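USER:
Class, as today's exercise, take the chain set out below, and explain how the chain folds.
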Amino acid sequence: MSDSLSFKSVAELSSLLAAGKITSLELMQSCIDRISAVDGKIGAFLGFDQEDAIAQAKASDERRKNGKTLGPLDGIPVGLKDNISLAGQPLTCASKMLKSYVSPYDATVTARLRQAGAIVWGWLNMDEFAMGSTTENSACKKTCNPWDISRVPGGSSGGCAAAVSAGMTPLALGSDTGGSIRQPASYCGVVGMKPTYGRVSRYGVAAFASSLDQVGPLAHTVEDAALLLQAIAGADSHDGTALVNPVPDYLREMDSKKGPWKVGVPKEFFGDGLDSAVREQVQKAIEFYKKAGCTITEISLPETRYAVAAYYIIATAEASSNLARFDGIRYGHRSDKATDAVDVYSLSRAEGFGPEVKRRIILGTYVLTSGYYDAYYVRAQKIRTLIRDDFMRAFNDVDFILAPVSPTIAPKFGEKSNDLLALYLGDIYTIPVNLAGLPAISVPCGVAHEMPVSFQLIGKPLDEVTLFAAAREFEKAHDFVTRHPQL
């Protein structure tokens, strides 16, 4: 993307398009040029169909010429995490298991972006089947953090965060199962929103853990994230878990939603393990809201200390079930070494899945086994209920909760890959939100050790509006949206 367009917000780009100062074709071509210039260093894109993207841009320009613009996203490129179906294009989940798969249909979120006139393009790198928090588990390629290419971009939506951060696409859609939008957004210095569970349809999104997965936006600004969520949210007859509640006009209601707010700060999220430099930046965000007239209250979420353990039982159990379909017979890679039906199943899965996916399938199968189901899976679900109860009690006294996104900055490649416990504990502040099904937004707030740091705002069910409003108030008072990696 040309330097003049690379880091402009969607609001700015939409205004330029409306004024005729740029065309969608020029914008799309600038994205392609930006990829050519910098993605060799970053590795965010697994691929894109240039001919199709150009065709979509020309169609947008034609609509605009005829006075039939479809809205603020018309003509704006939106990249997709490689677990979101885009008809006629590859969908690999960054796995050898799906290396030859082509989506036969659009995911609901993809179809809704098309209806909004957005240019839906590209497939962005990720941890295999969304299992990981560094994008090191991708079977396809390595993705680097644009702020320091010796460091990971986070995960599992690492390609999405890196692409937006590096100015290769104005917007991207990722998925968040235990922090997979918010954590890479924090590591890469962009905005990431995990909506309320069920706010966005999961139809056409390759499943990891069905009761936890949720699609959401990554963007340069809070307003851009709101625009993208506006386009994709809402009920869906294809997804029985998609909520039927009306979708607010996020931008209009953000403008009318004013503070000061009652802000909860959970003491459990500021204990041992939180890097002191990260703590300092998050504390500055807390002080900002305090000076803005907000009431800051220390709260307790005692059951969240069990969140990581409960998550890795529930998520792996659901993964074990969801990934059973990839067996070399119904779906996925089929081994050419197989001599009988048992070989087809065992060899195809052994060859097609990477180490982390295998690890989680084995763990998930174990906790669902007769004799262990009650001891592990049922108990984890009970803990999940207690964690949600903790949050709901807190919301009796506060409007939203402010907490760190990650205990550290982005680690260097290989730094945690041999210490699985440390790697899993990196999601200790994001996982409770998924278990409780709540919305949360990651907002850049500073720099620690020369790398971006963010805080997250966690909201009541379906109260994304308050999170957007409070996050934008912080964003407007700071210059983080103007800071970009130098590539």
User: Anything to note?
Assistant: The mean pLDDT is 96.
